[in-house]
Amino acid sequence: MKMKIEQLYTGCLAQGAYYIESEGEVAIIDPLRETRQYIDKAEANNAKIKYIFETHFHADFVSGHVDLAKKTGATIVYGPGANTNYDIHSATDNEEFRIGKLTIKVLHTPGHTLESSTYLLKDKNGKDHAIFSGDTLFLGDVGRPDLAIKSDLTSEDLAGMLFDSLRNKIMPLADDVIVYPAHGAGSACGKNLSKETVGILGEQKQSNYALRADMTKAEFVKEVLDGIAPPPQYFAKNAMMNKSGYADFEDVLKQGDKPLSPDDFEALANHETALVLDVRPQADYTKGHIPNSIFIGLNGQFAPWVGALITDIKQPIVLVAPEGKESEAITRLSRVGYDNTLGYLEGGIKSWKSSGRAIETLESISAETFAERIKNDTVNILDVRKDGEYNSSHLENAQHFALDFINENMSQVDKNKTYHIHCAGGYRSVIAASILKARGFTDLVDVAGGFGAIKKTDLPTTDFVCPSTL
Q: Domains in the chain, please, with CATH?
């Protein structure tokens, strides 16, 4: 039987888990929280999951290693120095594991975190075939070295370790070795990750800025640390869950997947201080929503935005979801450690209306209407895109109010003003508006289609111009 390597990619998290099989034995690398998919895949192939390899203590999602080990008896493997509250095999550098006719070799590559390891897969003939590089090496980038700070280590120290790991462990490998990273574009674990999710090491040696052959360690440290945004607040909490363990996913799903009448829904919101989280498409939210509900739609980068904006990871949550999407919402919440969903509104917003309860709307206008308003009046504009997006190009007189840091920057907005809010495409602006509405802002207007639509009008923008080198 040939070796089988399958990348199981989750776009919302920009995360790749891996299924490796040979001769009826399976290794899973960096599994997601919902483990049934791996078990079903192995059973369908009459194979047994033998090892669960973790490249490091993930910060951007809760891994499924603990549940998967309980269900299969597989051994959890971490790199050197990993300490957990559950049983693992803490591997030594260069230790090898057998999967059928394949060999998986541990390359300790500290830098992103101290225990970070790259797994080198050798084929049945002992030839280096692929690396599963975790957050050590991405396509086009490397992992951020500021997430595992201890009292005696700085981000500069960790960046220096990462430089050595790349030069001593990964760059000496052959150019034809396949690179399977843990993340792609959209992840906050690096700065400029490629949209591609599989690559070749030789290509990375040529194109990845961090692998330049003539690069000094000092240059590497400076370039890797330059422009890194602060990590989302949930990163440290997810890393701790991955080290300490967590509730069974099935229990989390069972607790949350409960239909609630409007009476019960309202009681939980009022008496259990549950957050009303509306996960429908943004157009549905603007047309009618429960007062004080927060919008974060399933149709965008749902889990990362939940993690960035809901500061209490144990926050009780009740859902307003599209019909049939309730369990998906609970699952995606659990991927970033939000395990306290208490139920969902049965019948959705229609049942809320039918019960005679109040709903609110959010004014949403086209970019063309927005342009006409600006020409005819003074308009307060909130641009809620990320720093890099705003700095690249923005409307003249727009106030930058990045959604990432909305909780920290509420003092920058005035409840007595009317604000027109835009992002890049219309998703984040509605999130921002919902948060502002829940905090007492009443005069808010969403610009549908965001900056992409605005750029098609004749409104003047301020674009970034690269300084002349002459």
A: 4-236 (3.60.15.10), 248-354 (3.40.250.10), 363-463 (3.40.250.10)
